[in-house]
Amino acid sequence: QLTKIDHVKGFRYGTGSDYTNGVLGHSDILRIGPAFIQDHALMRSVLTRRFPVIFIDESQDTDPAFVEALRHVARETRQGFCLGFFGDPVQKIYMQGAGPIETEHGWETLEKPENFRCPQAVLRVINRIRAEDDGLKQTRGRREIVDGEEVAVEGTARVLILPADDQRQERLEYVRQWLADQDNDDGWLESEDENALRLLVLVHRMAAARLGFPNLYSALNDKSSEDLSSGLIDGTAWVVRPFLSYIMPVALARQEGREFEIMRLLRKHCPRFQPETVAAADTAGFLKALRDEIAELMAMIEPGSGARIGDVVSFLRAKNLMALGEQYAALVETFAQTEEQVIDPAPENAALRFMQCDASELWGYRKYIEKLSPFATQQGIKGAEFEKVLVVVDDQEGRSNAFSYGKYLGVTPLSDTDRGHIDARRDSVIGRTRRLFYVCCSRAVSDLAVVIFTEDTTQMRDAIAEKAFFEPDCIHVIE
After folding, report:
1. CA-closest candidate to residue 442, choices 116, 130, 30, 126
2. pLDDT, tens digit, for every residue of 187-208?
3. Short-list 85, 64, 72, 4, CA closest to 43
4. 414-458 confidence digits (pLDDT tens)
5. Pairing mode, if any, of strands 444-454 and 386-393?
């Protein structure tokens, strides 16, 4: 790439790094920005003249190198420049974040204890969580006008403890119905309005399992390249783009009887709609063939069809319904020549494992990408708010060493490493999980429910009661 870099005319921000095509990834920006500021006086001069006031939001999760670079600017520029950090160290949920911003001579600290989002029930919970950290007690809470007077919103905050078995999805649906019945509020059953209800899971894998695309997720996430794993989450991976922009929209339009939309998509993506091809075709026969082929496509991506994603792409290629680039054409050939199922994850076979997934998993993946489901990750909702929040706690499905609700709640023993970090006052799994739990619970505008899957429901109930985050009558065990 270094031999070709001089021919690149300019760079743009993108997903992952591709220097020869002028694409800088997020990690590149985090390295380049501080280096430009720290090492080049002209850059600092341009920065302060063009932006004499700089506020850094979510400063606790800002890259430490960026924080130090801006501190350097502030020290050097005593007049005509103002630097401000807005953040809450108790909401630091990323490993690389700066955390608390230490003040310097002449700096002023402004504290904001007021909380304008959470109802009283939730405010009590997050204050008790926070008491184990910095002890800041938030005040006020959400208010509303009733009969011309401003009154506090009470809201609800509950914990529901369930067995960790192979019926998790069914139990989760039961809990949503139970909450709806208890509150006489069908908002707990909401599936599409992302502002009404959010089900917060620890990792994308948990959402993938519950929405029906676990194998697709594993193929592109586990030990795959950065471009595929990050592109899987935002829908930019080269193997999924044709499905999100063309194939699934055609299938959805067929389901809903939107014939004009089908034709629009075919005109845009289908090679058979080239003007010279259409002009030479028998119109009636041409349209009938298309209709039959779209029906065949629909049958392939239905659950139980047995068709794999590679079969769908091969079909579209054989019928000349989709143009394939070199990279995709080579992948189709590899898929056709590979009879055995590839199980072991590795960067070189991630795309092939994707092609070998059941085609029906594409429906769940599309729902997740298009935010048509109530699921979101616990790390991905900081700054957002929702009427109802349902936090799903399930360490078995999380597969993460960074967070452990079991250790945080006292039902899973700490390791020697955990104890060492705590004794040395370093960041630990306990602190990280506490902060993540605080962020999740504080998203609720009206109602909060925490669903905990555990092997020992009695032990977990006792642990939750001992923590005393929730009122005793708000802790429920559902077997």
Report:
1. 126
2. 999 887 777 899 998 888 888 9
3. 72
4. 999 999 999 998 889 999 999 999 999 999 999 999 999 999 999
5. parallel
- pLDDT tens, position by position, 364-419: 999 998 887 888 888 778 788 999 999 999 988 766 678 999 999 999 999 999 99
* Long-range contacts from 394-399, C-beta under 8 angstroms, 24+ separation: 394/164, 394/168, 394/201, 394/202, 394/206, 394/452, 394/453, 396/164, 396/453, 397/168, 397/201, 397/202, 397/203, 397/205, 397/206, 397/209, 397/453, 398/202, 398/203, 398/205, 398/206, 399/203, 399/205
Distance in angstroms between the alpha carbons of the first and the last residue of the chain: 58
Contacts of 157 (CB under 8 A, 6+ apart): 121, 122, 124, 125, 441, 444, 447, 448, 449, 470, 471, 474
Global pTM reads: 0.80
Among all chains, which residue has been given the structure tokens 């690149």?
A: 8
